[in-house]
């Protein structure tokens, strides 16, 4: 599903070169749930940006669902992002004056689906996150947890190959965080491939595969026996 | 198509949620465009071709005949003596030839019970005037005899004297003499009045009354425009034999051959005058076609040209301001742009969406530009009162206004849009 070989990403200023990623290798297969952990500034977000085609890389090769992304045009990258990737952000990134329906509708618009198909997908995604009855609500009328679920619905509506989550529970209290994590686990059980960056070691331990990033390199790839829901609670 | 509708909806949504901002932007652009449109309305009238179907075939005749040697009089004159003018009429080279001078008379309908007379600007001319200028007849036709007491009147005078009815065959009185009306013109707004573009009369109304020149001279109708002479004269009837320069001549030359032959005809005449010792100058006769003649007479006012430049600069400042405003808006909306890019919008799509927004803004702007421009035009005409009845916002100008508004709106948005669509996605979203 996702194959990164010797990826490097260097940020340059006039005087300094920062190696955000170096010799970064990762393979994620379909249906996996991978937690990416590491201290601040270790390169987790850079990895997620490169993986999500939001940022370029300087060396190495990256294949997403069989497509070598190196050298693709902006149009092709945008198309790949839209079709194969679902993003879940820490700050939800919902457009505040669009209602829930229109927020979830956004990526589908760029995909070119007709109105009927879009409606079907939006309703189905909202149903999946348990918020089908809130289509006309504005984001500000929902709790943080609900807003993140809407963001997940937006990511799911396009039926992507992989979900990339950047600290999806970072802005939530523990109860809401647990609900969101349960939703992600449930999606994974239904077959979704998920890569999630997190600072929370408990959340990471609840995920079968952990990847630790330090100084732009993977230092540990542990396989845990995931904690049960009762244990995570 | 569905995407286009989506972009339009998004644009309207954006405009609604940032009403104050867009009001400011639209006002800025509309002011700049309005001033330009008002100026263009005046410029358009001033620079329009009054007779486009044959403006390149009608020529003002300028001749070297002035006899005085004092000062620099080598430039050919557009005003001619009677005998020079007659020499032009004698030629059968032009398709049509006319001579004319402007006069003013007072007249009344003979059948009217009122004795009050109406002032009428008068063109003493020759029969070919009507064919050469394509004067539009409502009733009747031109006179046939250059010595007949017959006149053609304009629509305004016909309205004043006869209430606008067909007055052909009716008599009017001028200086206690009876003149029979043989033709009535339709309302005729020749802009500019090419046959009398000199002496800043290019935007005068077309004349009220047209009469045979021989009759006008016989009756000593006054010369109401520039006249220069080297001899004293008491009345226009005395000008036939004297060095009085006041008649203007126009000819229609349909082919290059006609033009060459007529130029030679004029040059031989001037040379013969020189050989006879009537003037000392090199022969420098000129034939100006209508547009050349209007340009030579500076029909487009210098003030207007300077004002046009100033309005263009003002519009450039408005575009710059609008662009700065938009840059600030796109900066504040970079999260949304970044988000759209992250979830699959390409740079092209972001650019296209912004372009459509700018077109919608341009369309709104066009409406306000035309309204404000019309107000500016009315104010501007206080500077140019002679254009009051003719400078207006016609359909062509309004379409031009819409195009300018959309173009300026797009130009304003161009740089901010390029910046927005090329922004780094990962730095815009968290």
User: What Rg of chain A do the Cα atoms give?
Assistant: 18 Å
The termini of chain A sit apart by 31 Å
Mean pLDDT of chain B: 91
Please indicate the percent range of residues of chain B in DSSP E strands (runs of 2 or more). Answer: 15-25%
CATH architecture of chain A: 3-Layer(aba) Sandwich
Give the spatial strand order of the biggest sheet of chain A. Answer: 6-7-8-3-9-10
Helix-strand category of chain B: alpha+beta
Count of alpha and pi helical runs of chain B: 13
What can be said about the biggest beta sheet of chain A? 6 strands, mixed
Binned, the helix content of chain A reads: 25-40%
Q: How many structural domains of chain A?
A: 1
Task: Write down the overall geometry of chain B.
Answer: elongated
Mean pLDDT figure of chain A: 89
Strand content of chain A: 25-35%
What is the CATH class name of chain A?
Alpha Beta
GO molecular function, one term (chain B): transmembrane transporter activity
Keywords (chain B): Cell membrane, Membrane, Transmembrane, Transmembrane helix
Organism (chain B): Pseudoalteromonas denitrificans DSM 6059
Main location (chain B): membrane
């Amino acid at each position: 599903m996702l194959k990164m070989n010797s990826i490097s990403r260097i940020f340059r200023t006039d005087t300094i070169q920062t190696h955000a990623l170096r010799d970064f290798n990762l393979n994620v297969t379909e249906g996996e749930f991978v937690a990416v952990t590491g201290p601040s500034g270790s390169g987790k977000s850079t990895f997620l940006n490169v993986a999500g085609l939001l940022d370029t890389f300087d060396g190495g090769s990256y294949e997403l669902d069989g497509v070598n992304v190196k050298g693709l045009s902006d149009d092709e990258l945008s198309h790949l992002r839209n079709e194969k990737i679902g993003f879940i952000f820490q700050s939800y990134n919902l457009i505040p004056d669009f209602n829930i329906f229109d927020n979830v509708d956004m990526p589908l618009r760029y995909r070119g689906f007709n109105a009927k198909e879009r409606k079907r997908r939006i309703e189905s995604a909202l149903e999946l996150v348990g918020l089908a009855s809130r289509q006309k609500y504005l984001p500000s009328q929902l709790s943080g947890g609900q807003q993140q679920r809407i963001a997940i619905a937006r990511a799911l509506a396009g039926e992507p190959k992989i979900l990339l989550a950047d600290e999806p529970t970072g802005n939530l209290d523990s109860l809401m965080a647990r609900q969101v994590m349960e939703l992600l686990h449930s999606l994974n059980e239904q077959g979704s491939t998920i890569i999630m960056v997190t600072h929370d070691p408990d959340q990471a331990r609840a995920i079968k595969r952990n990847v630790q990033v330090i100084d732009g390199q993977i230092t540990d790839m542990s396989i845990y026996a995931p904690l049960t829901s009762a244990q995570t609670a | 198509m569905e995407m286009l509708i989506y972009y339009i909806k998004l644009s309207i949504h954006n405009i609604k949620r940032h009403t104050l901002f867009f009001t400011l932007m639209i006002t800025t652009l509309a002011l700049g465009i309005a001033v330009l449109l008002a100026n263009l309305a005046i410029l358009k009238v001033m620079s329009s071709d009054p007779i486009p179907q044959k403006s390149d075939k009608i020529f003002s005749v300028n001749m070297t005949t002035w006899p005085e040697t004092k000062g620099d009089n080598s430039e050919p004159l557009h005003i001619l003596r009677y005998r020079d003018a007659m020499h032009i009429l004698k030629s059968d080279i032009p398709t049509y030839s006319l001579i004319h001078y402007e006069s003013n008379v007072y007249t009344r309908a003979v059948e009217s019970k009122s004795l009050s007379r109406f002032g009428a600007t008068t063109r003493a001319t020759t029969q070919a005037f009507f064919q050469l200028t394509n004067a539009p007849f409502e009733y009747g036709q031109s006179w046939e005899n250059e010595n007949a007491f017959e006149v053609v009147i304009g629509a305004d005078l016909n309205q004043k004297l006869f209430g606008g009815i067909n007055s052909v065959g009716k008599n009017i009185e001028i200086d206690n003499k009876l003149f029979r009306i043989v033709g009535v013109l339709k309302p005729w707004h020749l802009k500019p009045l090419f046959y009398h573009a000199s002496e800043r009369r290019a935007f005068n109304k077309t004349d009220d009354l047209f009469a045979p020149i021989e009759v006008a001279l016989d009756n000593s109708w006054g010369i109401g425009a520039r006249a220069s002479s080297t001899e004293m004269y008491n009345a226009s009837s005395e000008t036939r034999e004297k060095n009085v320069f006041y008649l203007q001549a126009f000819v229609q030359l349909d082919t290059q051959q006609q033009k060459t032959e007529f130029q030679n005809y004029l040059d031989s005449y001037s040379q013969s005058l020189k050989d006879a010792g009537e003037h000392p100058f090199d022969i420098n006769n000129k034939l100006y076609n209508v547009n050349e003649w209007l340009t030579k007479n500076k029909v487009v006012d210098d003030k207007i040209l300077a004002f046009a430049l100033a309005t263009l600069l003002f519009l450039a400042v408005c575009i710059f301001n609008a662009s700065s405003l938009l840059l600030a808006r796109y900066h504040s909306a970079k999260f949304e742009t970044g988000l759209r890019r992250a979830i699959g919008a390409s740079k092209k799509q972001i650019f296209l969406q912004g372009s459509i927004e700018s077109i919608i803004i341009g369309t709104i702007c066009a409406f306000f530009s035309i309204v404000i421009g019309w107000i500016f035009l009315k104010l501007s005409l206080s500077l140019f009162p002679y254009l009051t009845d003719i400078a207006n916002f016609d359909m062509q100008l309004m379409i031009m206004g819409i195009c300018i508004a959309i173009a300026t709106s797009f130009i304003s948005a161009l740089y901010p849009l390029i910046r927005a669509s090329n922004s780094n996605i990962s730095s815009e979203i968290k």
